[in-house]
Structure formats: structure tokens, C-alpha cells
Design brief:
With about 240 residues, the chain is an alpha+beta fold. Helices cover about 35% and strands about 15% of the residues. The protein has six helices and eight strands, in the order H-E-E-E-E-H-E-H-E-H-E-E-H-H. The protein has an eight-stranded mixed beta sheet with strand order 4-3-2-1-5-8-7-6, sandwiched between helices. Strand 3 and strand 4 form a beta hairpin. This is Class II aldolase/adducin family protein.
Length: about 240
């Protein structure tokens, strides 16, 4: 057996990311999938309305059972209808719809296969993308980094839509619910579409805050320590309403 190259070792399994281009039979969406599709489209439209993406850049996915619903490639979100539902299985085979899934399908499937996340949001948010070109980790400018699991890492650049990018992203996401993609954008995940989206918005806000603070001539922003962040992480465990 041939020895693996160094760049092949300890690489997350992100295979099977591309859609099946065959014309095999595809089933109709179940009621829970139809509801999830409506929520997915609403979330995708919100990324545009809030200025996190331009045009059809960025993409959204949500998992329902073993089916991953995803935004289709190159279709403006305001044109999507219930009949446009697009879904694949965890191996990337298309099981719902006829529109081609997003070109970033490998990233979405990598998250859904390796975490317990039910939703993923990917954007080209301006401030976050700018920060991704400057640092390898977002400095601890605000305690809400704790809500993403700790200091936000920057995944090294790789061509969009590739397994290499998906692998880089997974390493940056280890122990986190969000990361930056170098010269590209953001990825966040959550238990729901709302949670994944809120994490995206929070990450963009923190990046904007850091860029604003560092733009003041002659002054350097104060940063939080690891201990201070750990204290916030502990407090966040009891944050919100108990049900």
C-alpha cells in the first residue's frame, strides 16, 4: 500500500460533496421538509436584506432527518418558490428538486456529517471578510466570542466549492460554531436556522467592532484575556429563559 503524503494525513473526510448529476427519480417533499424549505428561503432572503451577501453569494442549508435542504446555485433568493425545494442526502446525492445545489455543498455537508448542527449559514459579509485578510484569528475584542465557542479562527484560503476548503473550514470550526474563511467570508452553524443566522450577524458585528477600534490613530484597543472569556462562557450557560 502506498504511503500517504503529508498533506493527506489527518484531513477531515469531506468526500461525497458534489450533487449526483444523474436524472434518477426524485421524491416529493414531505410536510416537514416543505416547512423547513420556507424557513430556509426566509433566512436566505434575510442575509440579502441585512447586507451580509450581495446577489446570490453565500448560501444556507438546513437538515431534516437525513436530508439536507440547500439553496440552489445562482438563483436569486427572491425568485425561489415552494416548488424549487432543493435537497440532497448526506452523500450529496440529490433527492429533491431539479435545480443544481449550491456550489458550496461540500462545506455544508462537511458540517452536517461531522457535527450535530441542523443549520448552516455562509455569507460574504464585508467586515468579516476584511478581517479574514488581516489575521489568522479574530482578536478577543468582545466577550460575545464566547457565544461562538471561543476565539474565532480563520480557515486558510482554498478555492470555493472544493473539498480542500471544506477541510480547512472543519479544522477552523473545531470546538466552535463559527469561523472566518480567508479572503472569502463566514460560516456559522446552529441547532436552528435562527441560531445559525444570529451567530453570523454576531460575528460580522464583532469584526466591524475590531476594525473600527483599530482604525483610531495612535491607540490600540484593549483585548480580553482567556480567563475573562472563560468566565463569560460559564455565565452564558445559564443565559436566557428556562423552559
Amino acid at each position: 500500500m502506498a504511503e500517504r503524503r503529508d498533506d493527506e494525513r489527518d484531513t477531515p473526510d469531506v468526500r461525497g460533496g458534489g450533487p449526483d448529476t444523474g436524472e434518477g427519480p426524485r421524491r416529493s417533499a414531505r410536510p416537514d421538509e416543505a416547512r423547513a424549505w420556507e424557513e430556509l428561503v426566509a433566512t436566505a432572503r434575510r442575509t440579502v436584506a441585512d447586507g451580509l451577501v450581495v446577489g446570490t453569494s453565500g448560501n444556507v442549508s438546513v437538515r431534516v432527518g437525513d436530508t439536507v435542504l440547500v439553496t440552489p446555485s445562482g438563483v436569486p433568493y427572491d425568485r425561489l418558490t415552494p416548488a424549487d425545494v432543493t435537497g440532497v442526502d448526506l452523500d450529496g446525492r440529490q433527492v429533491l428538486g431539479t435545480l443544481v445545489p449550491t456550489s458550496e455543498l461540500p462545506m455544508h455537508l462537511a458540517v452536517h456529517r461531522t457535527t450535530d448542527a441542523r443549520a448552516v449559514v455562509h455569507t460574504h459579509a464585508v467586515h468579516a471578510t476584511a478581517v479574514s485578510t488581516l489575521v489568522t484569528e479574530l482578536p478577543l475584542i468582545h466577550y460575545m466570542a464566547a457565544a461562538l465557542g471561543g476565539p474565532v479562527r480563520v480557515a486558510p484560503y482554498a478555492t470555493y466549492g472544493t473539498d480542500e476548503l471544506a477541510g480547512n473550514m472543519l479544522r477552523a470550526l473545531a470546538g466552535r460554531s463559527g469561523c472566518l474563511l480567508q479572503n472569502h467570508g463566514t460560516v456559522t452553524h446552529g441547532a436552528t436556522l435562527d441560531q445559525a443566522y444570529d451567530r453570523t450577524a454576531q460575528l460580522e458585528w464583532m469584526c466591524r467592532l475590531w476594525l473600527t477600534a483599530t482604525s483610531v490613530p495612535g491607540l490600540t484597543p484593549s483585548l480580553l484575556s482567556g480567563q475573562q472569556l472563560a468566565e463569560v462562557e460559564e455565565r452564558l450557560r445559564g443565559y436566557g429563559q428556562r423552559r
